[in-house]
Design goal:
Layout lengths: L39 H20 L3 E2 L2 E2 L1 E4 L4 E4 L2 E3 L4 H22 L2 H6 L1 H17 L2 H9 L4 H26 L5 H9 L5 H21 L1 H7 L2 H4 L10 E4 L1 H4 L24 H4 L20 H13 L6 E4 L1 H4 L9 H23 L3 E7 L6 E2 L5 E11 L5 E8 L5 E4 L4 E3 L4 E10 L8 E10 L2 E13 L4
Antiparallel strand pairs: 1-2, 3-4, 4-5, 6-7, 8-10, 9-10, 10-14, 11-13, 11-15, 12-14, 15-16
Helix pairs in contact: 2-15, 4-6, 4-8, 6-8
């Protein structure tokens, strides 16, 4: 590990070679019962979760210009995003957006640690929702642990069954909403009520529901610890100026219990009262006092509960806090450093470029396809004909009538079989055209020409594509 990288210590969940119960690379799973916590960071997470879940479940029902506001209509090859309509030809915008998303993850990780994991990751969001349901039905952490240790009874079965029924119903609604972004959700709801749901829609609703139920209800922290690759390479993005959640070992050690009002210095103790509440509230079950660990998702639950304990003991808050390794060692933290500046400039350039490219895109596609039956055709008058099929795609949300012109060689005659070139929204028009030319003006056998298509009602809606005009060898 290089000097500028923080040391990631193994957690209590890690398997040690000395563990006699270990027979594989994985620790034997023990269910984690996160204790409910209250505080400023808990409130921020709750607000974030409610906003994200509200957007996920609500946006699918919004309407925009007569259609669903966000709809990925795969059969029609149209992707509606509020007032914008994208086509398969615009797929590079999606790739561009993915690059920005990945770079943003690197940027925020280098700057402020695992903000994504703690506040916005789908695994975190839905796990918190399932935990909330579990607490409402099964009770507090202590009640859940006591019930799980007890023998099966009618009461225990009823409570467990109710919890799983609510979990499954919530997961099914999640799967239904997911498919509602690909099939209009109102139509999808009608199909479910009339028992006329298609096989693929049924499969994806059940598949996504099962994934939600399994990941958020059963696997929970195991997804973060064993399945998520992000935890494995986060150390490559961390340095000693990265904001992390850390326990102030100098202030807290040696830890030990004591009564309120007693000066810990008189007993030779640090500020940590060894209540283990920071472990009880952790959704991945780690002890933050063991140092920075890859299992830590940065949820800040340990900060809230420790601050509450410090407040009750009359000690200064911040024994566990957002800080940096440089700050913990008494050095100055540098926020503006080369990697942060580089990420910022790249993100601004990519985001600005994407906005500009989307705003300047032409909602008209023109493809030139030459006739394959022959390179050219000679008329009775000795003129040369080249035959093309023009594929016109109107990507705008309203119909247009177009004018077609050709340029590049002197004296060209454009022969269009259709007197009016009209395309409705989303329509693909095949337009056969012939370009006729006197061979005397040709200086070479293959020549470059340009077809220009312009909407009559909107001169800015124009597309120019290059083709080849082929004649006899000179």
């Amino acid at each position: 590990m290089s000097e500028n990288k923080p040391t990631v210590k193994p957690s209590a969940a890690a398997v040690s070679e000395s563990d006699p119960e270990s027979s594989s690379f994985y620790a034997k799973h023990k269910k984690v019962y996160p204790r409910e916590v209250h505080g400023i960071f808990r409130n921020l997470r709750t607000i974030g979760i409610l906003v994200l879940l509200g957007l996920y479940y609500g946006v699918a029902w919004l309407q925009w210009d007569g259609h669903q506001a966000v709809l990925f209509d795969l059969p029609a090859r149209k992707f509606y995003v509020f007032g914008l309509t994208f086509w398969p030809q615009d797929f590079f915008f999606f790739a561009w957006l993915l690059v920005i998303a990945a770079l943003s993850l690197f940027y925020f990780t280098a700057l402020a640690g695992r903000l994504w994991c703690g506040y916005a990751c789908p695994q975190t969001v839905w796990t918190e929702a399932f935990l909330w349901i579990e607490r409402k039905i099964e009770g507090t952490r202590g009640q859940q642990m006591k019930r799980d240790k007890s023998e099966m009874s009618a009461t225990k079965f009823r409570i467990k069954a109710l919890k799983h029924i609510v979990w499954i119903a919530f997961a099914l609604f999640t799967g239904f909403t997911f498919v509602g972004y690909f099939t209009p959700i109102r139509e999808l709801a009608g199909n479910i009520l009339s028992f006329s749901l298609g096989p693929w829609e049924t499969f994806w609703i059940l598949f996504y529901s099962f994934a939600t139920y399994g990941n958020a209800g059963w696997m929970r922290e195991q997804v973060c610890i064993y399945m998520c690759p992000y935890a494995r390479f986060q150390s490559a993005m961390f340095d000693k100026d990265t904001l992390i959640i850390a326990y102030d070992e100098k202030r807290g050690e040696p830890r030990g219990s004591r009564k309120r009002g007693i000066d810990p210095k008189e007993k030779g103790l640090g500020d940590c009262v060894d209540c283990t509440l920071c472990v009880q509230v952790c959704p991945t079950g780690i002890d933050i006092r063991n140092g920075l660990q890859y299992e830590c998702i940065g949820c800040a639950a340990c900060i809230d509960v420790c601050d509450d304990v410090m407040d009750k003991m009359g000690y200064e808050k911040g024994l566990i806090r957002y800080t940096t390794e440089h700050n913990l060692s008494g050095q100055k933290t540098k926020i503006l450093r080369p990697r942060i500046i580089m990420y910022t400039l790249l993100l601004l350039a990519l985001a600005g470029g994407l906005v500009y490219a989307v705003s300047q895109r032409v909602l008209l596609e023109l493809d030139i396809i030459r006739d394959r039956s022959g390179l050219y055709r000679e008329t009775d008058e000795g003129l040369i004909d080249n035959i093309y099929t023009l594929k016109i795609i109107n990507m705008d949300q309203k119909p247009h009538q177009y004018e077609l012109s050709v340029s590049g060689l002197e004296g060209m005659e454009l022969i269009v079989k259709k007197p009016e070139i009209t395309a409705n929204s989303g329509e693909v028009v095949d337009l056969p055209v012939t370009v006729r030319l006197d061979p005397a003006v040709l200086e070479r056998a293959s020549n470059e020409i340009e077809f220009t298509l312009t909407a009559k009602d909107d001169p800015e809606l124009t597309r120019t594509e290059t083709g080849r005009f082929v004649g006899p060898r000179i």
